[in-house]
Amino acid sequence: MTPARLALDPADVLGDVSVSFWLPIVALTLALVIKLPNLVKLWRDPLLRAVGGLLLFACGVFVFASPSVIGWTNRVTGVPNISAPLVYSLITALCASWLLLIVAWRNGLSDRSASTRRAARWVVFAYTGVVVALWVLFALADVPVERRRDLDTYYATTPFMREEILLYLLAHTVACSITARLIWNWVRTDGLDAWLRWGLRLLGVGYATNLLFDAAKLTAVTARLTGHDLDWLSTNVAPSAACVSATLVAVGFILPHSGQYLHERWHARLGHRRLRPLYVLMRSVNGGGTPFTPRATWEMRLIRRETFIRDTLLQLSRYLDEDLRDRSYDAARALGSAPDRAKALAAAVTILDAVAARERSPETDGATSPSGPDTTYLLQEIQAVSRALRHRDEIEAVRARAAAPAERVARA
């Protein structure tokens, strides 16, 4: 085998790569569905309008840019390559929505100043002018041969069509560069929610990947203009970069919303489970419990369990022994517990003692101070107290040490 036969043409290597438009379409549609309720309720919000327009135009780009839909559009209209200005217009509208989103983000939702409105108008007017120019240039161009995959390079040297291709790529590159730069600047600011920060990072990577689309397209078109053939950059690399970019952008919009939602649900479920020891103990006092509702959210279940525990603790408060709690705290500290842990262990010992006291004399008042027991910590830190109840060996050690004479505890 000769060395010449060992050389691989990039077009041959990438020619069999199938670019699927379904993944970005599904991801973008999912992001649009998630945002749709807020878009309907708060349509006057410029930020939400920009997000909605961005996702809608992005979906439209990938639907109408797929080769099968390109062929269908050309066939239905009877105009060869009419899909080209249509797709280019959708891409340009998408660019405008990027910039409008940045204007809304940069100035904040409450900013309705003249400079903000002026910046938004400039974006709309400039990119509307680009769309009009795209259709005028297409009307002047002679493009009789239908090209579904390689139109940009096939007609790169055709008068008017050449200018149209360069115009949409220039508009796309400018918008993508500005958007990517401002998003990365925002990522570096302080005070961002963790989910929002990760969403912005994905958006930044997505827009940066879009620049690879522009670089591949412009390189292939420039090569045609100079008499070279790098069409594989336009037909294989650029669509792949666009699909990856759109998917990252969609996930970047989905992540802050869905991530926060899942985090809150997991936190509520975990909190509900952690309250079980204290809840079971309070059920032994109250004799009842919270009703089980299969359709209730974990947030609602957590609220009901917390309410039940606090109500029962208030009923139990007359049996609480403040002196026992103080001695238990000192005992826990003497055993090496940190202050917060010692408070939780002391509260657990006091509650168990109060439950036992109530069982011994349910109709009489427990040992309380004249001013009444302080239940602030018990009502506020039920999670910590419930976690302490899981460690009965520690509770018993604290109880035993607290039962010793006061001077012995002090010497320890």
UniProtKB/TrEMBL annotation:
<feature type="transmembrane region" description="Helical">
    <location>
        <begin position="124"/>
        <end position="145"/>
    </location>
</feature>
<keyword id="KW-0472">Membrane</keyword>
<feature type="transmembrane region" description="Helical">
    <location>
        <begin position="195"/>
        <end position="213"/>
    </location>
</feature>
<feature type="transmembrane region" description="Helical">
    <location>
        <begin position="47"/>
        <end position="70"/>
    </location>
</feature>
<dbReference type="InterPro" id="IPR046675">
    <property type="entry name" value="DUF6545"/>
</dbReference>
<feature type="transmembrane region" description="Helical">
    <location>
        <begin position="20"/>
        <end position="40"/>
    </location>
</feature>
<dbReference type="Pfam" id="PF20182">
    <property type="entry name" value="DUF6545"/>
</dbReference>
<feature type="transmembrane region" description="Helical">
    <location>
        <begin position="165"/>
        <end position="183"/>
    </location>
</feature>
<feature type="domain" description="DUF6545">
    <location>
        <begin position="266"/>
        <end position="390"/>
    </location>
</feature>
<keyword id="KW-0812">Transmembrane</keyword>
<dbReference type="InterPro" id="IPR050039">
    <property type="entry name" value="MAB_1171c-like"/>
</dbReference>
<feature type="transmembrane region" description="Helical">
    <location>
        <begin position="82"/>
        <end position="103"/>
    </location>
</feature>
<protein>
    <submittedName>
        <fullName>MAB_1171c family putative transporter</fullName>
    </submittedName>
</protein>
<keyword id="KW-1133">Transmembrane helix</keyword>
<feature type="transmembrane region" description="Helical">
    <location>
        <begin position="233"/>
        <end position="255"/>
    </location>
</feature>
